[in-house]
Amino acid sequence: MVLFAALGMARFAEWLPALLGFDSKLLGNLLAFVAAMAMMVVVAWLIERLVLGKLVNQEGITLLMATLGITYFLDGFGQTVFGSDIYKIDIGLPKDPMFLLENVFQGGLLVNKEDLYAAAIAAALVIALSLFFQYTSTGRALRAVADDHQAAQSIGIPLNRIWVIVWSVAGFVALVAGVIWGSKLGVQFSLSLVALKALPVVILGGLTSVPGAIIGGLIIGVGEKLSEVFIGPMLGGGIEIWFGYVLVLFVLLVRPQGLFGEKIIDRV
After folding, report:
1. Nearest partner of 247 among 268, 218, 267, judged by Cα
2. Would you list the domain boundaries of the chain?
3. 209 φ/ψ angles, rounded to the nearest 5 degrees
4. Phi, psi at residue 108, to the nearest 5°?
5. Is 235 exposed, middle or buried (0-12, 13-18, 19+ CB in 10 A)?
């Protein structure tokens, strides 16, 4: 979804100004974002109507395979519709580096300003989503459906509407992530591989824990960089690519629910 949304944003930012006859980059980006968000809502509705709505109360592995199929379909379909070149998203984020903590240790810490803006946007998203899931009736309904489809359905929660909402929210988050990564790296097929870094993060932190996802992201992000610097030269480099997955594998052997996930107890 990150790749699909980013492709839509990049191409709409090219097409809409030419179609409507204006040259304002800010207006073009705003219209492209709105158009890409509308596209992701339509994608959410189609996913619910054509796939998930027909898999109500199926086993988790069935839903997993269905969503994996959706993943590969969106990757291929997105490139069919929008093209497979490398596209640029320019939203005006500063790209020049800056030094932090120069008074703490010699040389300081070299940080890209774009990364700081991305971190601030990510933090704002996490806070907004946490409040949404915790304090709104719709957010609580989403959590109930995630816990148990049958129980949620038995108390009158409409699964069809909830799934459209949750996939629309996922589409919005994917669009924001795609815009930020597209601004940093350009929009290309490898963007989906970057987005998959979220998988070991949420597994490490615990699928049911938002704070766990934050801490898991910090652990894997710092671990990747340190392992590349200190262990990479001994192994020939490239350790940053697979470090997170291996770390999660070892954690799962000890704590299958992740560091902060809820322990699942089956009573028979």
Report:
1. 218
2. 2-194, 197-268
3. -125, 115
4. 70, -165
5. exposed
Alpha-carbon torsion 251, 253, 255, 260, what sign?
Answer: positive
pLDDT of residue 197: 82
Asked if 177 contacts 118 with a C-beta cutoff of 8 angstroms, the reply is no
pLDDT digits (tens, 9 = 90+) for 230-266: 888 887 777 888 888 899 999 889 888 888 877 666 6
- The answer to whether the beta carbons of residues 129 and 210 sit under 8 Å apart is yes
d(CA 214, CA 132): 17
